[in-house]
Amino acid sequence: MPSKPPAITLTTGSKNKGEIRPVSLALQGGGAHAAFTWGVIDQLLMDGRIEIEAVSATSSGAILAVVMAQGLMDGGNEGAREALLTFWRKVSIASSLMPIQMNVMDKFLGHVGIDVSASSMALDYITKIFSPYQFNLFDFNPLRGIVEEMVDFDKLNKKPPAGIYINATNARTGKSKIFEPGDLSLDAIMASSCLPFVFKTVEIDGEPYWDGSFSGCPALAPLINHSEPGDIVLVQVHPSFVDETPTTAADILDRATEISFHSVLLHEMKTIELYNGMIASGALKQKPVFLHRIEAQDMLTSLGRSSKLKADWDFLIYLHDIGVQTATEWLAGNFELLGKGSTLDISALVA
């Protein structure tokens, strides 16, 4: 039997005094790198000055969104923090049951260098040569059981603690499908996180769905349309750019996928820029959308693409701690600007 990850204790919330600032979160996927997102959310919830009014999420970010929402319903901010901690503990345990395991040499390589490990190369070979309909006949996905155990979708659909928008991609039409309170389900979450190289297509109402990142990474439009637009905080895991041109087949495919994900995000950022321009000119009588970003792209990129599938407890805590530190620094430099303007220069990104 796999050993249980060592327990860690949640730091008590800081209960900061002062004005509460409402924000909407936009959460990307990224496999195990979503543990960085966990750390960011953990710090935002612990800080005590942030109210999460809506979340748009895709892929592994979608799983975090519904787990967090369940925790908020059960016990407020501290309940959400405890739920996310429990989720990642379960992920770490489940990862030890996967058919391809890290060996002693993989662990010796540590957080950097995993791309050249034997287990990573074996998985690369299998997923590039065979489809999940060949090597994953029973569609084994341990995350499905974890989400099913932790999230009460009936309750979430009836009384969500915030706007929850989950994006999936219709594999037949290529169009984005947004699932929101009222039609959230276990299948919807699995569809949003369905990497077609690893898992079989998820069918909902007769339509086939793949990972939501192909059509929204994550989708920003639901947050713009949710109530009155305000501050959107993008927690970015996928890199906008890389320093070196990929040369191996696996790296080229991984980067090509990241570029396709990012191009969709850039298009939505351009829409926000145009929207704000129309407001500034007086053509629209609405409140502007302020966009912010929390990211640690240099650190995450240095870990290598295969680390997205590395879910041992030490590594998850390592990513969580990076997220906590990054969010702490972001809050220190940007909290007072919430509600007043964007801290992310959209024009520089989409130019």
Which labels suit this protein?
globular, alpha/beta, 351 residues, 13% strand, eight-stranded mixed sheet, single chain
Task: Tell me the fraction of residues in β-strands, as a range.
Answer: 5-15%
Total number of β-strand segments? 8
- Straight-line N-to-C gap: 53 Å
The largest sheet, given as strand count, sense and whether it forms a barrel, is: 8 strands, mixed
Question: In one word, what is the shape?
Answer: globular
Helix-and-strand structural type: alpha/beta
Question: What value does the Rg take, in angstroms?
Answer: 19 Å
H/I helix tally: 13
Helix content: 40-55%
Q: Which spans of ≥5 residues are poorly predicted at pLDDT below 50?
A: 1-7, 99-123, 125-138
Q: SSE order in H/E notation?
A: EHEHHHHHHEEHEEHEHEHHH
Mean pLDDT: 84
Structure characterization notes:
- This protein is of the alpha/beta class.
- 47% of the residues lie in helices and 13% in strands.
- It is built from 13 helices and eight strands.
- Strands 1, 2, 3, 4, 5, 6, 7 and 8 form an eight-stranded mixed beta sheet that branches.
- α1 (34-47) links the parallel β1 (21-27) and β2.
- Mean pLDDT is 84; it is low at 1-7, 99-123 and 125-138.
Short summary:
This protein is α/β, with parallel strands linked by helices. The protein has helices at 34-47, 60-95, 104-109, 118-129, 132-135, 142-150, 153-158, 186-192, 221-225, 249-281, 297-302, 313-334, 346-350, and strands at residues 21-27, 50-58, 163-170, 176-179, 202-204, 207-210, 231-236, 290-295.
